[in-house]
Design brief:
about 375 residues; alpha/beta; TIM Barrel; eight-stranded parallel β-sheet; two-stranded antiparallel sheet; 14 helices; lyase; Amidohydrolase-related domain-containing protein; decarboxylase; hydrolase activity; carboxy-lyase activity
């Protein structure tokens, strides 16, 4: 990859000139570099990725984006946690991030990316990956999952052990994409059609958001802009419950402060846009807190299209709100989106030879 230029070495066009008025920006779009690993995880959690999307390749996403009217997507790794920290986990994450940056360099007007981090218990490795991904690769933000580990050893993202990571993200005013973990529950999912991604993942997102709020971390690290996947799962419905009962149980924040902090998240629409959920969100946060997402390629383009039509129909009489959700809110949150990564500040860093993409499961033709 070429040496990045400093930001003042170019005069970039206005973001709105780069994106047509009807362009859509998808902030929830995955990439799967290891089809076998993804298929194995699907069996564990009760999910079926569309056959046509595995093995995944960039052209799979580009074709779906064209069909859905999406100009650019912000890619993120699947919400699959390693079982433990270690050198192998660091290497896998580094390879994923380098691949994503190479894909963005090949298609700068079509892809951005959220960098993955190692298992968060590896605080040192996570801090190193934040610096490498944001300073060297030009990532648009960082992707986190709701918890790390299994069973009683699992830690949610607001755990005190992870404070140095949040401190660094706060210092950088970073954007975090927070997705519920695909961790099998201690009780089995009730039906083959109600696997973990259907019944558990949205609630994991809610639990992580609630943990950030009642622990005071959302308020403490207020410079971090956090996007909750799937409209925050059950967040808008359970936030008032948390406000009253967590305060009753000893949370020093007032009920009003708790609700206020829940409203400070961004919420994206993937697999969640329906009259019922959108009505709830409309009473909970203003439209400038909503972002468009599809969750492709975990679902088919047909499924993503159904939710997109729901979103358009709901906001048919409010074109400014719809434009904010589909495009403008993302442009405000990601001012460098759509620029070549060579145009982004790099603090003088370069990718070393040892950091080049290795052969193996992450080797995918662009």
């Amino acid at each position: 990859m070429s040496t990045h230029r400093q930001a003042d070495d170019f005069d970039p066009p206005s973001p709105r000139k780069m994106f047509p008025q009807n362009a859509r920006i998808d902030v929830h779009h995955h990439f799967f570099l290891d089809a076998q690993k993804k298929a194995k995880k699907n069996l564990e959690v009760g999910w079926r990725t569309p056959d046509e999307n595995l093995p995944w390749k960039p052209q799979t996403s580009l074709a779906a984006m064209d069909k859905l009217g999406v100009q650019i997507t912000i890619l993120s790794p699947p919400a699959i946690s390693s079982t433990s920290p270690g050198a192998e986990n660091r290497t896998e994450v580094r390879q994923q991030n380098i691949y994503a940056s190479q894909l963005c360099a090949a298609y700068p007007s079509r892809f951005g990316f959220f960098a993955g981090l190692p298992f968060l218990d590896d605080v040192k490795g996570s801090l190193e990956e934040i610096a490498f991904s944001l300073d060297v690769l030009g990532a648009d933000g960082v992707a986190l999952i709701s918890s790390y580990g299994d069973g009683n050893s699992a830690k949610y993202v607001a755990d005190d052990l992870y404070d140095p990571i949040w401190e660094e993200l706060d210092r950088r005013h970073a954007v975090v994409f927070l997705h519920g973990a695909q961790t099998p529950s201690s009780t089995p999912y009730p039906h083959p059609w109600l696997g973990v991604p259907v019944s558990e993942v949205p609630n994991e997102t809610y639990k992580a958001a609630a943990h950030l709020v009642v622990s005071g971390k959302k308020r403490r690290f207020h410079n971090v802009n956090i996007i909750l996947a799937h409209l925050g799962g059950s967040t808008p419905f359970l936030a008032p419950r948390v406000a009253a009962l967590s305060h009753y149980m000893g949370c020093p924040l007032t009920p009003g402060q708790i609700v206020e902090d829940f409203k400070s998240f961004y919420y994206e629409t993937a697999l969640s846009a329906h009259e019922t959920t959108l009505t709830a969100m409309a009473t909970f946060v203003p439209s400038d807190r909503l972002l468009f997402g599809t969750d492709f390629p975990a679902v088919s383009s047909k499924t993503a299209e159904w939710y997109t039509e729901n979103l358009e129909n709901y906001f048919a009489g409010r074109p400014l709100d719809l434009a904010n959700i589909m495009r403008d809110n993302a442009l405000r949150l990601f001012p460098n989106l759509g620029k070549s990564k060579d145009q982004c500040p790099s603090n003088g860093h370069q990718i070393s030879a040892s950091d080049q993409l290795h052969t193996g499961p992450c080797t995918v033709n662009l």
